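User: Continuing from earlier, I have the next pair ready.

Assistant: Great, send them over.

User: Here they are, in order.

Assistant: Folding the first of the pair now:
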Amino acid sequence: MLPVVTALTCFLCGKTYDHSLVQGLCECGRPLRVDHDIHPGTMSLAEVALRPPDMWRYREVMPDCEPITLGEGMTPLHEASVLGADWWIKDEGVNPTASFKARGMSAAVSMARKFGSRKVAVPSAGNAGGALAAYAAKAGIEAHVFMPRDTPRACIVECECHGAFVNLVDGLITDCANEIARRKDQEGWFDVSTLKEPYRIEGKKTMGYELFEQLGGLPDALVYPTGGGTGLIGMWKAFDEMERLGWIGRERPQMVSVQAEGCCPIPTAYTNGERFARMHENAQTVASGLRVPKAVGDFIMLDLIRVSGGTALTVSDNEMVACAREMAAQTGVFACPEGGATLAAAKTLLASHYFRETDKVVLFNTGSGVKYLEALSL
């Protein structure tokens, strides 16, 4: 069965848009959600299990396009009882381009090509730029990547090798985004910034479908390193879709967002009982993927964290690096600092009795440590 997309709907105000046209943000300035015609019988779990092991196996609930794929998805879920009694690690570092960003860019570039776009642009702290460059190269589309000047060198070289035009900016990822916003209309760029187009979420949500397949159900909690938030939001969307498919009921995992002490707009807003996060001034952290001082989807993350009974917390750079090294030494998963942050957070939550010893907890390692040698050498 082919996917049936019905509309694009604003996550905040509910305004709908024609999905057959190129759309960015809603006129209210907030992200759009891809709505599918989904009901029991739309997608059979038994049939999905027989399909190739990549994210496009969930074809009926994906964007309606010809996939640009490098084999992304169906990443391993490692049992990690050496870290916690019933803890697991979802290792996104084995994706093409060595991070979970491959999922979102596969979907976004596929749709950009469908719409006839010849140039795409993204602000990136590293992995998103590398993924966009790779998928744009596969699609024959010109890629423009704007990165903070202190982005890990491996990520810059990756983009250059894939033929992208790399622009190094003195500042943060928000400054990179501002530069794209200023120039995109004149340059004719399809802007694939986090949540500023609706399709990267569609790739990221497949992590939720995979968890369900691999575990034979949902975990009690998942711990996710949060920058722009597409992974967290995407998986929540997947759980909603699975309920409409009849795969699950109303149960949901506790959604736990982890950020760095030096850049923590989501935990701050969560603690203060606010629905929208404030800009985190002078953001600093060795985890480049967590150096996002303001996310356009902040309210979506905060809503789903609260509805799920989850929480948002911070860890220090020293803690995340130490735990990334521990994860590698104890499990064989060479984690990035962001992946280490999930282990540091889980330890804190277990010590505070937020997690019980019997809870099934999934930690997400969002990228390979190979691309973060400078940070992991501290």
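And the other member of the pair:
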Amino acid sequence: MIYVHKDMELQVKKTITGLGIEKIEQDMVLLGEKSFRGRQVFQWIYEKKVRDFDQMTNLAVPLRQRLSQSFIIGCLELVNQVQSRNTNTIKYLLSLSDGLHIESVFIPEGKRKTLCVSSQVGCSLGCRFCQTARMGFKRNLTVGEIVDQVLFVEALLGIKMTNIVFMGMGEPFLNYEAVLSSAELINHQDGISIGHKHIVVSTAGIIPAIYRYTDEGHRYKLAVSLNSPDPEERQNLMPVSRKYPLYELKKALEYYTRKSRRRVTFEYVLLKDVNDRLQDARAIKKFVTHIPCKINLIPYNETSADFQRPAEKTVQQFVDLLKPLNAPVSVRWSRGDDARSACGQLAAQNE
């Protein structure tokens, strides 16, 4: 909500972005309108990406005026954008209404147009190789602030995204309700309409949320940051593993793949002489034995002097070691590290 002075009285305006179709229909009834007007407003916001009620031309002018008096569209403002010199990847620094900032990244690759969205301002997990961890945790994002990253960038570029990944700033499963509600809006056929197979929710391994996600039957793809198959090394790299141990994570993922009949994607950041060795590859194969999966290897994107990226030869040797697996293995080379927009590099740096 925002507060504006009008005729010397304090008036509250509610942010309409982030509301579902049923809630907007209820609000239309409260304004004395037929409920179907809510569907029209919903489509204008989420499908046509308008950010001004005056552009909703199939609504009567008096209704548009009442909407303008009661609501605002959009939660975000553009502060800065940086485009990679090597690719067309663009990182957006976006301002929230309370003055905090988040980052979103547009990653084009052929016909595939992916937006990496944030779910929190900062992060509380403290992964040693991740720049966002150095921000600390400020707060969770609202549904509107998450969804508006998609609406804002689509409107700015004049294109429709094909894929959404919840892999930006923050741990999505520590903002569970808002993330899943925003995924519903992104998936809604009368709105942004991105298929559930093209939406990925990533987690560092919040085990209770994995069980909940499984039992609720969500159809979005699940990705898990593994980063080490060794319990002690993973605890060193990812302190969350002290609370949610690796062996318990494996049980949760076996439950997920068995019940959902979907495979999980393992994200694995390769760190020179830390987790890129022969014994690490062998341990990965043992860890995923009963988990239908695919594996994305991510050569480290520089954020700290404590770690280095392995040589390309080492990366290829690691891939070859994993090849006997009955699972796809791919390497995700950075598509924006020169713009500080690659995996692990988001930090809303003007904070």
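Worth noting for the second one:
The CA atoms of residues 143 and 182 lie 5 Å apart. Residues 2-10 have pLDDT under 50 and may be disordered.
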